[in-house]
Amino acid sequence: LADRLQSTLSKIKGKGKVTEADVKTMMREVRLALLEADVNFKVVKDFIANVKERAVGQEVLKSLTPGQQVIKVVNEELTKLMGGEQSKIAVAKKPPTVVMMVGLQGAGKTTTTGKLANHLRKSYNRKPLLVAADIYRPAAIKQLETLGTQLDMPVFSLGDQVSPVEIAKQAIEKAKEEHHDYVLIDTAGRLHIDESLMGELQQVKDAVNPDEILLVVDAMTGQDAVNVAESFNEQLDITGVVLTKLDGDTRGGAALSVKAVTNTPVKFAGMGEKLDALEPFHPDRMASRILGMGDVLTLIEKAQTTVDEEKARELEKKMRTADITFDDFLDQLSQVRNMGPLDELLGMMPGANKMKGLKNVQVDEKQIGHIEAIVRSMTKAEKENPSILNASRRKRIAKGSGTSIQEVNRLIKQFDEMKKMMKQMSGMTAKGKKKGKLK
Ligand code: GDP
Ligand code: MG
């Protein structure tokens, strides 16, 4: 999907102007790409209609070329399609939070139960109780117990002669006694959806009234995953989806359509067999990855067309020598703001998260007003030569801008960090450009 979309989008990227016909051609390609990726045809149809409407609609942003605008719309709509915001796991008002894991055989329920327990402990310091309620598959109980041992977490089981309903009920009693804040119930699956399975899951649901019913689906099953999700949702009213095996050679189709078809969000992604291979699912990141936005060239292209040409050239020179002033900084800040949220932008730079000191560079959008005030309180000499900013000057600036010395200090530090990063980035730009030409 990524390749296909990217090549389509890159065709249009070079253009200065995009006509309605261009959008049409492009959307035909996007449509094919999505269908090829096994996205549900109805979902594709709606998606294309949405994008078309928006792309040829009114929203002409000065800072973006029409081509970029289409990409932006496709990206936003893809994100929306996958649920928009990241959806977190439920927390019951009164513990324990009861989570029921459901899905077909082999989807990854038992493994995910272990991974989820691990995630809850690691990220939220929770104390989950694992419950073995799959009494049909001979090795199922043992499998969960093994995971429990690996995690050093208790597993509740009553063998395979007691009904899942009874197991689930007793497990919750036990969890209350021993102060577990999460109860993760691993249930049985079948190879295909059938009445007796659904009936039994329904009984467990009625008996324990879970706060969360997570449907585990194998992302590799493509279109089937969507059908499975639809039936489970009809019968059980699932509250979330875990897409497993996204580490494999899967087409992204399931991720795109599950939410659209069931109207339940994908909450986690399984990225491997190990117990730490579970990640919260981020629709925006997934969309960016699908569009190949994690690409320095894209970022640079975007930056270059957004910042107007002359300024860009000037800035590039300054960046190379890292000879920027606070005025440039302010300029930059407003240019960057035109491009979109800062963290999104930084997310596009591969390895950006790992870059040392980036945390200090990241600017909270809310603080931008303060930053502007601080810079405006500087004298011309100070803006051009920040090294003269001694303690008394900083104090004066803090007063003048209605901020605090700490804030002034922080900004000066950020400015220094940014200078350093610009030096690094200008190195990357030069390299990236050469590579791009060779392709
Ligand atoms: P269940 O029948 O739904 O309980 O499925 P299992 O938890 O037993 O998993 C079935 C198989 O899928 C096992 O071999 C797991 O190791 C594997 N599996 C589960 N999740 C993932 C994943 O995210 N990535 C990969 N590569 N394998 C997975
Ligand atoms: Mg299992």
Topology:
Blueprint: H1 2-13, H2 20-36, H3 41-55, H4 66-81, E1 97-102, H5 109-124, E2 128-133, H6 140-151, E3 155-156, H7 164-177, E4 182-187, H8 195-208, E5 212-218, H9 223-236, E6 240-244, H10 253-262, E7 266-270, E8 278-280, H11 283-290, H12 296-306, H13 309-321, H14 326-339, H15 342-347, H16 358-361, H17 368-376, H18 380-384, H19 391-401, H20 405-438
Helix pairs in contact: 1-2, 2-3, 3-4, 4-11, 5-6, 7-8, 9-10, 13-20, 14-17, 17-19, 19-20
This protein binds guanosine-5'-diphosphate and magnesium ion.
Please describe the structure with a list of short key phrases separated by commas or semicolons.
Signal recognition particle protein; 20 helices; disordered C terminus; single chain; 8-stranded mixed sheet; binds guanosine-5'-diphosphate; 439 residues; binds magnesium ion; EC 3.6.5.4; alpha/beta
Describe this structure in words.
This protein is of the alpha/beta class. The protein is 58% helix and 9% strand. The protein has helices at residues 2-13, 20-36, 41-55, 66-81, 109-124, 140-151, 164-177, 195-208, 223-236, 253-262, 283-290, 296-306, 309-321, 326-339, 342-347, 358-361, 368-376, 380-384, 391-401, 405-438; strands spanning 97-102, 128-133, 155-156, 182-187, 212-218, 240-244, 266-270, 278-280. Strands 3-2-4-1-5-6-7-8 form an 8-stranded mixed beta sheet, with helices on both faces. β2, α6 and β3 form a beta-alpha-beta unit. The radius of gyration is 26 Å and the shape is globular. Guanosine-5'-diphosphate binds at residues 103, 105-111, 189, 216, 244-245, 247-248, 270-273, 277. The site of guanosine-5'-diphosphate (GDP) has 19 residues, from α5.
